[in-house]
Amino acid sequence: MPRRTPPPIEAGREIQETGGEGSGPPRHAGRRPPDIAGPAPFRRSRAPPWARGGRGYNARMTSSPPSFHAVVVGGGLVGKTTALALSQAGLRVALLAPRGAPPPAGAEQFDSRVYALAPSAQALLERLRVWPAIDGQRLGPVLDMQVRGDAFGELRFSAFQSAVAQLAWIAESARIEAALDMALGFLPQLFWREQRAVALDNLSDGPARLTLDDGTTLSAELVVGADGAHSWVRAQTGGTVKRREYEQTGVVANFHTSEPHRETARQWFLDGGEILALLPMAGDYLSLVWSARTEHAEKLIQGGGERLGAEIERVARGFTGTLRCVTPPRGFPLALQKVDRLIAPRVALVGDAAHLIHPLAGQGVNLGLRDVAALADALAAKEPFRDHGDPVLLRRYERSRREDIGAMTLATDGLHRLFSERLPFLRAVRNAGMSIVGAQPFLKRWLVAQALG
User: Fold this and answer.
1) At the N or C end, where does the chain have fewer CB atoms within 10 A?
2) Domain of life of the organism in this record (predicted)?
């Protein structure tokens, strides 16, 4: 019988070898593998069939679930930054989170979620090469800050006097997340699934297994809970959570102002423990965060943007000029939340899943991004004989974060308690204390250094 000759391979045709558990993305002939951790630009790579929602040959032929170094549960700014940081370090990462909506289009279309990013947050986003991708025309620098007590106390902070370029950047959450989404889309070892996790077996003697609501099972050396204050991941670990409601609601909205804000953030401590903060956005716009008693907050929101603007003008006493609301007011409940541990077997918590503080200092998201940086650093220092969920690595991460989280929690909660007391004696003491601190330049520089992270 004559011998049959196999047909020739067509020129330019992709050749893909299907691997077993943990196999990487397909290799493309004639292309250099992407430089994941270096300064090269992001490159897009086609995900395997299971990551695109289908089931490939391997998924049908083996019972082993897809394996990852880490699975990040939860999107948002902190979750996406975690997935990006670990992926850029060369880890195979799955992100379980719904895809966000694009940022609002138009000059006066704003996201009501606005953050004051400290230099530590900026440094992390620059390290991940995300900062240059954020729309610079929507970033507002904070060069000065004025804090007024509920009587005669006053504090002023200056970037110039503190020898820094700016105290913070005011940025919309949607703009930051859009830059993160773009970066995540170009990482070949990052697989983004929108399914929800419904079961977690975090085995200390083997990889954790996550079951998704479509029946898919994922295997991971480490599961990162970045799923917010009511964290599902944290609940699966059985950790203890202590929560205390502040009985306040954070009212947020954005305004156009007729007077220039001069890149100055202003904050007023009001009667009854309420706190009003106005943050300078890019251009002639201000972002409001009003920590108000819940019943008062409901009235502020229901009154609409025009009445809210008039109430702010009354409190600000001419600093803002005439305000015009450009985003409808919204509210969110305020609470203090502490967890007994940041880690569990094969699990690490970051962001609001690990801590929740009062927004009076605008440090919540900065605290979460410092969690991300610390976790990435702990995993980068992994010894070759450990995997990424090794208890020793997780304990290193937890130890590195305890002091920072504890100090910020104590400071924000302490200030809230101090200004919530109605006793005349305490009112005089706290306002005198503000004035004394304001007269001490070295103490003010130390306070700024702590806030900058």
Assistant:
1) N
2) Bacteria
